[in-house]
Amino acid sequence: MKCELEGMSEEIGRVLCTARLTIACAESCTGGLLTSTLTDSSGSSAYVMGSVVSYSNDVKARILRVSEHTLSTHGAVSEETAREMAEGVRHLIRTDIGVGITGIAGPGGGSREKPVGLVYIAVSDKKQTVAEKNIFSGTRAENKRSAVKKALAMIQEVVGSTINEKL
Question: Alpha-carbon distance 167 to 162, whole Å?
């Protein structure tokens, strides 16, 4: 899986660089793994502007501007929170693309309503924010890698549509 992630990351980097687009990440359950993967490529400082690892609700609210209403109504692990994380980090770091990831990597912390492996991923650009619910069924490390792989695929889609709109 590592080679596959590296290949996806390098392709995203080439596309972002060519299109002169920038990206920032807001990560909870992946703990910075997406940002680490994106920065594994030489020259990534041209398009990766920064990230926020927001494990606590306080950081989600205070730094990323996830609303208290969203956190109290939907919880930290929700589509709404992922969307606000993606939009918040895009505005905070002033990038073209923002990514938000929140979930339960495991092995503990799950419930019947929100099981281990539940991860919401959102990708935001100036026109739209897309979000997806995922349920992964591996170990903690596998769930984190699966979330990063899914996030990279979503970034590819959003970047492609952003570039098409620029043409």
Answer: 9
pLDDT digits (tens, 9 = 90+) for 29-66: 999 999 999 999 999 999 999 999 999 999 999 999 99
Q: Of 67, 66, 122, nearest to 97 (Cα)?
A: 122
The model's pTM is 0.94
Say if CB 31 and CB 54 are below 8 A apart: no
DSSP per-residue letters across the chain:
-HHHHHHHHHHHHHHHHHHT--EEEEESTTTTHHHHHHTTSTTGGGTEEEEEE--SHHHHHHTT---HHHHHHT-SSSHHHHHHHHHHHHHHHT-SEEEEEEE--SSS---SSS-TTEEEEEEE-SS-EEEEEEE--S-HHHHHHHHHHHHHHHHHHHHHHHHHHH-
